[in-house]
Amino acid sequence: MTPGCVPWPAETAQRYRELGLWTGRTLDTLVRSHGERTALVWDGGRRTYRDLADRAARLAVGLHGLGIRRGDRVIVQLPNTPELIDTLFALFTLGAVPVLALPPHRHDEIGHLAAHTEAVAYIVPDAHQGFDHRELARRISGPKHVIVAGEPAEFTSLASLYAGPPGSAETGELGFEPPEPGDVALFLLSGGTTGRSKLIPRTHDDYLCNIRLSAANARLTPDDAYLAALPVAHNYALGCPGVLGTLYAGGRVVLTRTPSPDDAFPLIESERVTVTGLVPSLALLWAEAAGWSPHDLSSLRLVQLGGAAVSPELARAVGERLGRVQQSYGMAEGLLSQSPPDDPPELLATVQGRPLSEHDEIRIVDESGADVPAGHSGELLVRGPYTIRGYFRAEEHNARSFTSDGFFRTGDLARRTETGHLVICGRVKDVINRGGDKVPADEVEEHLLAHPGVRAAAVVPVPDPYLGERTCAYIVADGQPPTLAEIGAFMRERGAADYKIPDRVVTVPSLPLTPVGKIDKARLRNEAS
Ligand code: AMP
């Protein structure tokens, strides 16, 4: 395994192999079956599996020509475009490791990723949603290569790197060794921690297990078409089962320009989309739009709901207006709990599915770390064949986030029903879940404290009918209190992503403290709601 990553104990890994949970296959092979079937559809184009495998192989040769090697980290910040899919498979083929940044990330986040991973390359679009990513790339030091999908300016054009001879995927003569199944295949970003994003190393073996179990649970077949409405760089739309699960099953991946009903619904109709995954805020919008849309959405057979708390009312509305619901609770660190295909409607509305593998070991513990009685709620801990044993280069943080025997502390509060389903009841981690976008409170507080007009700051969630939660910052001002707009401009200047900017700022004379002198966030949360 890559240095800086925590491997599974050898005997556990051996057991996962013997049980067939880890199959020894690598992700690059996913596109090398199903030949002339359509793999990918997007606004104005489509690609067969053969084309996709061929393009990935040719791009892998080009990237190798730049000097990128197996194990090298490459920051990929591409929206849901065919270039993103080519790039992922090219890197898998090469054994280089994509670090999956999200499109809204700016120089604060990307700078951190570049430094932490010592990435050798940074792959960006020329511009996306009015933002020039080449400008951002100019502010990032470290990566030797900036590779641009589109107009490259002074950088390397992605299009120029499809260098290998056509057909190279089939001959297998790529000029480099393929990756090993135990290698890290990709780095996902953690949403649920303190401090800057932690990097989640997913191996070929473990991520394929994730994909395979999720694809089987969704009953994906070559006849399915999955619409990637959410960012593919995020675990949910990438591998739960998402894009990779669909390709594993031989189905079609459909990319939409935006997830709005105006863009997504015509595609659902024309491509006869069968499956998609939504966060609650988007599901609400779609369920409303389905009432007036002229488009035929009847092909949808499964609509995943997850990423943030889903109310029973929303689940029922989606079930009635869009298609059968599958609740999906999970995290980029691993564990997936998704509704089994035979759950009755009442369960689909009220519980967050069941862990996908009988080898997912679940514990629910109280504050002292002791297991709670059956049916009670507590913090959910997990260990299993597709849950990591540690973040990348994060020894200190790992000591807090994992138990000494390898259980991951999810930071979520859950209870387990008699049927083995999970109900997510809240969280202990200091993160705001803003419609599925995770905002670590301490990261925002750090930005706020850097403002000369702010002496103290505490960030808490406030309930929101649309996003589930929004971000509220309590500040103690030093002189004239900064306005919400000033704080927004200040954080943008510091390179924070827009979704991390507080939605509300409340100036107070002092922050309430607990008896031990910590900021009393529980009280602020109550006040804010
Ligand atoms: P990420 O790694 O970005 O997918 O974020 C994982 C976190 O999102 C989990 O630890 C939960 O806090 C939250 N989450 C994901 N799915 C759900 C869900 N169905 N219900 C409530 N919270 C969820």
TrEMBL record:
Domain AMP-binding enzyme C-terminal: 443-518
GO molecular function: acid-thiol ligase activity
InterPro entries according to UniProt: AMP-bd_C (IPR025110), AMP-bd_C_sf (IPR045851), AMP-binding_CS (IPR020845), AMP-dep_synth/lig_dom (IPR000873), ATP-dep_AMP-bd_enzyme (IPR050237)
Keywords on record: Ligase
One Pfam family this sequence matches: AMP-binding
Residue span, AMP-dependent synthetase/ligase domain: 31-392
Protein name: 2,3-dihydroxybenzoate-AMP ligase
Native organism: Planobispora rosea
